[in-house]
Predict the structure.
Amino acid sequence: MKQFSSQPNRAVTGQAGFSMIEVLVTLLIISLALLGTAGLQAYSMRLNQGGQFRTQAVFMVADLAERIEANKPGAVAGNYAVANSGVAIAPSTACIDAACGPAALAGFDLAQWQNVVTATLPQSTWTVAHDGPANPITYTLTIGWVDRQVDTTNAAFDAGAQLGSNVAGTGERFFYTATRTIFN
């Protein structure tokens, strides 16, 4: 017959409290993993917003290019040319309710487009240039904006070179340029 001992086993008593340390280490590892995941999520959201700005810029340039192509007489006359600007203008003629000539339609198109660009992209600027009265005429459309990044190491914005971060140093300036050729 087997005899039972009332004395505790020495191997079991030497491990007292070990389970509590394992739980605390596991909680530490899980909390570090969750903090890392939250940081990665925040970084991903910031990049996603930058991608959204780029996509909007492409759509807006395509919109103006289609407006230019639809109004060939106004485009040939150079009515769509806009120097470097960042301020939207009010439409001079409401071409929605009344018939407009090519110059008035070009002014209306530019006013609508500039208002959308100003409302959509932060600190936006734009340039619409054409290469003169040649046939075909090539319009060059450029949109610039500041992407909101917290930690940028770029130099301060240089207006002449159009490079660098914005005045506060809290974002980087991006540009999208496209061309559209109009045949008479």
